[in-house]
Write a structure and sequence with these properties.
The protein contains 16 helices and 13 strands. The protein is an alpha+beta fold. Strand 1 and strand 2 form a beta hairpin. The longest helix has 20 residues.
C-alpha cells in the first residue's frame, strides 16, 4: 500500500513557478515540469528520493504569508532615466535597471538578472561580469528558469558577498524566503510585472518565425524604441542579415500576450500586485507620466523608480548615473494604479482564466500554425473598431 504523500505544495491555480521549493530541497527531489492541461511548469516531487523534510513547504511564498518587513518605509517615487544615451536607448524604458546593475557592479556586488541563453531560453544567472550583466537589459516577457539561482545567491551571501537580485515580485519573495538572513548583503529590485508568459509557446513561436523567414533568429527585441518609447514595436534580426520591425498588434506572440492567453493562472490573482511592495527598489515604465510631468520629453523612455526601504533609498542616493525627479507619491500611485494593483473585477478575471484554459487545451491538440489561424493578429479595421469600443466603454 502506497504511503500517504505528506508534502503538499501550492496547487496549479496559485503556484507562481518561483522555484523556491526546488532550490531548498536537500535531496534534489523537486524539478519543474510541464503538466498536461497547462502551458507552464510546476514543481513535481520524486517520491522515491523525497525524505519529507518539509523544507519546500516552508520556503513556498504561496503557502506562507510573508512576514511584515520592518525595513519598509513610506515609498519615495521618482521619474528617472539613465544619463547614458546608449544604455537608455538599448533599454525598454528609461534604462534605470541598467544604471542600477552597473552601479551595483561598481560597488562590488554580484548581480542576478534574466538573460537569453544560446538556445533562446530565459534564465536567471548571477555574475560579476559586466558583459553578462549587459544581457539583462531589455524586457523579456517570459517565465525565467530559477532552478538553482537562489541557492547560488545563498552561497555567495553566506561567504560574505553582496548580491543585487532583479526579478518579478514573486521571485523577490522566493529569494527572501531561501535567504532569510541576508540583511543588507541582499539588495532586491522588483519589476512592475504584468504576468509571465509560457516559455513553451515562446519556443514554438521562435521555430514558427524561423521557418517562416527561412533563417535562424539572431536577435529579438520585445520592445523596440526606434519609433520612440511607448509606440509598442518589436524588432528582430535573422542570421541571413534581414531585419524586421512590426507594430505589436501584428506580432502573434505579443498579441497573445496582450490577450492573456498564455499567462500563468496565478498571475490573474497575483498577491504581490498592489501598491505596497516588499522589495528595496521597484522599477518599471512610467506610463501616464504626462499627467505628473506634462512638459517632460519622453521619446527616449522614462521609468518610475520607487524606493521602499532605507537600504534602497541609500543606494539610489549614490546613483550619479541617473537623472532623478522626485514626484508626488499619492498622485503617481494613482496614475500607475492599474499597473501596480490588480485590474478587473472577479467576474472579469474568472472569464479571462476560462479563456486562458481553453487556449491551453486547444494548444495541446493543434499545431502552432493551426493556433495562429485560430487566434490570429487583428486586422487594421478590427483593431480600429476595438479602440473605438474601448473609448466608448463598449464591451
Amino acid at each position: 500500500m502506497a504511503k500517504e504523500q505528506l508534502i503538499k505544495l501550492a496547487n496549479e491555480a496559485c503556484c507562481s513557478g518561483c522555484g523556491a521549493c526546488q532550490n531548498v530541497c536537500p535531496t534534489h527531489s523537486i524539478c519543474m515540469k510541464s503538466v498536461s492541461d497547462s502551458l507552464h511548469f510546476y514543481p513535481m516531487i520524486n517520491n522515491d528520493s523525497c525524505v519529507e523534510c518539509g523544507k519546500c513547504m516552508l520556503a513556498c511564498p504561496v503557502l506562507n504569508v510573508p512576514q511584515q518587513d520592518d525595513r519598509l518605509m513610506n515609498p519615495q517615487y521618482y521619474c528617472a532615466w539613465n544619463k547614458s544615451t546608449e544604455q537608455r536607448q538599448q533599454s525598454t524604458s528609461g534604462g534605470v535597471g541598467s544604471a542600477i546593475v552597473t552601479e551595483a557592479l561598481n560597488r562590488g556586488y554580484y548581480v542576478s538578472g534574466v538573460r537569453f541563453d544560446d538556445h533562446w531560453h530565459v534564465e536567471h544567472v548571477v555574475t560579476k561580469d559586466a558583459n553578462i550583466a549587459n544581457q539583462f537589459r531589455g524586457s523579456k516577457y517570459l517565465q525565467s528558469d530559477t532552478s538553482t539561482i537562489y541557492q547560488e545567491i545563498k552561497h555567495l551571501i553566506d561567504a560574505g558577498e553582496k548580491v543585487l537580485f532583479v526579478g518579478t515580485p514573486c521571485q523577490i519573495e522566493a529569494v527572501k524566503s531561501v535567504v532569510p538572513k541576508a540583511g543588507d548583503n541582499l539588495l532586491t529590485c522588483g519589476i512592475i510585472c504584468h504576468g509571465v508568459n509560457a516559455p513553451v509557446v515562446w519556443s514554438d513561436f521562435m521555430r514558427y518565425l524561423q521557418n517562416k523567414k527561412k533563417s535562424v533568429l539572431k536577435s529579438y527585441n520585445f520592445r523596440s524604441k526606434k519609433k520612440g518609447w511607448g509606440k509598442l514595436y518589436i524588432d528582430y534580426e535573422m542570421t541571413n542579415g534581414k531585419q524586421y520591425e512590426e507594430p505589436a498588434w501584428k506580432n502573434l506572440f505579443h498579441v497573445w500576450f496582450g490577450q492573456h492567453y498564455m499567462m500563468r493562472e496565478s498571475c490573474f490573482n497575483c498577491p504581490y500586485r498592489k501598491e505596497e511592495r516588499y522589495s528595496d527598489l521597484v522599477v518599471g515604465d512610467f506610463w501616464g507620466v504626462e499627467k505628473v510631468l506634462p512638459q517632460l520629453e519622453t521619446r527616449d523612455g522614462v521609468s518610475v523608480l520607487i524606493t521602499c526601504t532605507e537600504q534602497g533609498q541609500k543606494f539610489v542616493d549614490g546613483l550619479g548615473s541617473l537623472e532623478l525627479i522626485a514626484v508626488d507619491a499619492k498622485k503617481t500611485s494613482l496614475v500607475l494604479k492599474g499597473f501596480l494593483a490588480k485590474k478587473g473585477n472577479e467576474t472579469t478575471v474568472k472569464k479571462q482564466i476560462e479563456i486562458m484554459h481553453r487556449f491551453a487545451e486547444q494548444y495541446h491538440s493543434k499545431t502552432f500554425a493551426e493556433m495562429a489561424k485560430l487566434y490570429p493578429c487583428p486586422t487594421r479595421l478590427g483593431l480600429l473598431m476595438s479602440l473605438v469600443k474601448s473609448h466608448l466603454g463598449i464591451k
